[in-house]
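Pasting two entries for a bug report.
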Amino acid sequence: MANPMWTRVAERIGVEAKPPSGVWTKVCDYIGPKRLIKIEVVDDNESWEYSQGTGCGANGDLTGNQTDRMIAGAPVGALIGKIGGSTAVNEADNTLFVAGTLLVMRLKDTQEGPLYLTINDSLAGLADNSKVIHVNVYEAL
């Protein structure tokens, strides 16, 4: 199998642990269905705080509060994303995924739209978050 021919669609986008408006940071306007996407953190040493004074990298904190967060099966503080929808939370569309420091995934034929990223935390927990993690996003056919 040949290596994918990656095209960069977003470079060094800052994803804030406390988004300035809404819950999600829009990373790019549109990614088409069936595309292979790659999301990678620019600097693995970057960290953000999911609670005042309690931080982690984009893979999340396995020792943190694991009871109330947007994706229950992922660590608190992990970088998460969704395709489509808006900057408001929409958990009913079942498009949430865990990105961590590196994600490569093929979108389904029904997945298309804007790419959004945020921190895996409870909605109420976003208020005391701080710092930013930077990502690059690529796509291939």
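Entry 2 (this is the one that rendered wrong in the viewer):
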Amino acid sequence: MSLNIIGIGMNDEKDITVRGLEAVKAADIVFLECYTSIMQVPTSRLSSFYGKDVLRADRELIETQAEDRIIAPAVNKEVVVLIPGDPLGATTHLDLIARAQARGVVVQVIHNAGIMNVIADTGLSLYKFGKTTSVPYTAQGFEPESFIDVVVANRSIGAHTLLLLDLRPQDGKFMTVNEALVRVVGVAVRRKIDWLNEKTRVVGCARLGSTTAHITYGPIGKLVSHNFGPAPHCLIIPGPLHFTEEEALNLKEGF
């Protein structure tokens, strides 16, 4: 039998591809990975539309219980793991595939739209994005700043930076653009990065790929208090803009 890793897009139950839906309907077990991102509808909507019980899979299940809960059953059953966005956007899923193949399980990957291509909705060229990074939540004794190194490196080659924002669905915590901006500016001040300040124009995004997507362009000093609505959010710090990109962003000027 096989393990099917299926991207289900970024909005609701109808974003799945026809090929993906066929694989779900033929499955014996269906999991929904629910910690790298979130869908804009409850899991019950997926179950109803797919005609299958969809079991929520948290980080522990995917990373530490996969051998018993996912891979072993796939030896003689059809097992599906649904992934918000595209299935290969997170290294966790590459590891799952590798472990399954090492057990001799046939793996099928079915792609879908994910954040790495949907950011083109901002009007910024995908070809001008550099390395993507993330802004994590801090904790006592844990205040990583490596994201700022990526921003600076991308800027040095004229590239845009996509910053993915931390989320902890099990705790109901989703980092907002506002929180990320406070963090970015704080680190920039500490590192004495003069060009990155409250006047720097950035792009704040929420729920990209959904019917309620929200994109706003403007100076950090303004965006830091802007209401972007529900999660998930992401942030883009642009490099130098081509005139077509500038025209597109000006249409999303929020101030």
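Dev reply: Rendering is fixed now. As a check, the viewer should reflect this: The first helix runs from residue 18 to 25.
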